[in-house]
Amino acid sequence: MIRGRGKWYDGKTSRQHEVELHLDAGALRVVGVGVDRCVPVGRLRVDPRLGKAVRAVRFPDGELLETADDGLLDHLERRQGRGAFFRQVHRWENSPRRAVIAFVLLAALSFLFVRFGIPELADRAAATFPATTEGLLGRETLQILDRTLLEPSRLPAARQRQLRRLFDGVTSSYAEREGWRLEFRSGDVVGANAFALPAGIVIVTDKLVQLAKNDQEIAGVMAHEIGHLTRRHALRHLLRNSATALLVASVTGDITSVTSLSATLPTALIDAKYSRDFENEADDAAVAYLKGMGIPTRVYADMLRRLEKDHEKDSGKGARIGELFQDHPLIEDRVNRVLGR
């Protein structure tokens, strides 16, 4: 028999009783002034052993026993066939060497989850994201951008019609092109840029059009954005950077409210640093289009370099949306890849 001491509460009043504990093979007996309880060990619930916290034993009728006698409670858990995991945790907590090992393991697991787990969950969530919800997300995002960072385009209507015909030509080979549309915007904060929103919205800025030497260069940029669009890079990037949205989408397969997501996407675009894989996939789409049209890929490479120089020149003028041509990977790496070097 194992003996110990503790404090007893009857579950009906706040009165505390000093009691003696007697643990045998099959039952725990609690004895004190006005207290005499004997309960089979299988009917007791023992709090886990963590740190130096006082542990409690919960009885089936609502009574509570508190005791600092961890040895007795460990024996009680063993007789119940429980508590092995938390006893091991306690040993790790009380060993500096094991605590350091646990910290390193936790850091490594956290890194692996962020590096590989979150992208995988995000991509799965994006694959099941309802088209209607994605459409609403894209439209709300554009509305927010128009209220905050974008201004109406100053391109002549004839030039806009000409570029829309160019866009129609770039997208003509895509079966999913229905509903895609080209938007023109301006703004000093935006600079020379182009980016794709969910639901098939591609935005091209006035300054980018002015920076291009010919429409072939603009077509290469459009094809790049279509590459982002068809692979849902904006949505996947957003989900990868929104833990709450990712968890909801992963668990439920749907996100019923997109207002918070659409409010997040402009910031995600401003700070956008698409992964090397995302940028390579979009560049591959541009290269495939140019080769299919018999246009030298150096046309697109020249545009990338010009956009890079323009961004460097304007780097002190404030934040710019997207900077898709200045993000990872480095511009020269992308140019070399586009040129097949």
UniProtKB/TrEMBL annotation:
Task: List the Pfam families hit by this protein, alphabetically.
Answer: DUF7092, Peptidase_M48
Write the lineage as a comma-separated list. Bacteria, Pseudomonadati, Thermodesulfobacteriota, Desulfuromonadia, Geobacterales
Q: Which GO terms describe its molecular function?
A: metal ion binding; metalloendopeptidase activity
Q: Which cofactor does it need?
A: Zn(2+)
* Ranges that cross the membrane: 99-118
Q: What residue stretches are annotated with the Peptidase M48 domain?
A: 178-339
Question: What species is this protein from?
Answer: Geomesophilobacter sediminis
**What does the entry's cofactor note say about binding and number?**
Binds 1 zinc ion per subunit.
- The organism's superkingdom is given as Bacteria
| Protein name as annotated | M48 family metallopeptidase
What InterPro entries does its record include? Answer: DUF7092 (IPR055518), Mito/Outer_Membr_Metalloprot (IPR051156), Peptidase_M48 (IPR001915)
Output the Gene Ontology cellular-component terms. Answer: membrane
Picking any one GO biological process from the record gives: proteolysis involved in protein catabolic process
The entry's family comment says: Belongs to the peptidase M48 family.
Q: Which UniProt keywords apply?
A: Hydrolase, Membrane, Metal-binding, Metalloprotease, Protease, Transmembrane, Transmembrane helix, Zinc
Q: Which PANTHER family match?
A: METALLOENDOPEPTIDASE OMA1, METALLOENDOPEPTIDASE OMA1, MITOCHONDRIAL
Where would I find the DUF7092 domain in this sequence?
5-80
